[in-house]
Amino acid sequence: MDFPHKHSTNFPSPSSSSTARQPPPSTATTSTTDNDPMHSWWESVSKQRSRILSLSYLLPSDGTTLSSLADSDRPALSLLSSPAAYSLISSALSSPTSGSGSDPLCQWLYETFQSSDPHLRLLVLSFLPLLSGTYLSRIHTSDSSSFPSFSGFEAVLLAVYSSEVKSRFGKPLLVQIPDLSQPSLYHAPRNKPADDDLDNPSAFYHLRSSHI
Hints:
Elements: H1 37-58, H2 63-70, H3 75-80, H4 83-93, H5 104-113, H6 118-126, H7 128-141, H8 151-167, H9 195-199, H10 201-210
Helix pairs in contact: 1-2, 1-5, 5-6, 5-8
GO cellular component, one term: plasma membrane
Protein name: Hyccin
Family: Belongs to the Hyccin family.
């Protein structure tokens, strides 16, 4: 009995499908906003507008002037160059009730100086001569028995002092006083009177008169 031959059909072996693994998407996002000059400019303008608008709420008598300055492209510099705004803030600093710990204008100056914006810090420094002069004059003229509180003025002055010390890393600022007995580009030293002239008052008077 003949058995039919079973023809073996050679099927191709299934190829091992290797799935190529795709690298995961990079999660590190590069922040370009910090290096964008337009973004930095707009952030600075937003800070200045916010601080000047808060100042307009503290001085509502002429708030429209400060509000209009806040809408400019350079709010802090616009306030510095505005005589009306400077007169308004100067009047508030010079008022008899200013300088206390509850003075809202002193608190505004203190908080504004803590900002990292250089134009806002310059705005506070522009009122420093008036603030320090008012503070010193009131300390010497106030009665010691009823000495008022000037902690608002003192907080602003201490903030400026701390900033200066920090910027110099705690090193003292050395100031060299010029020796007026030595000639310079701006003056010629006076001749020192001799010892004999000091013993003779008439000769010393003649020496002084010749230099007047």
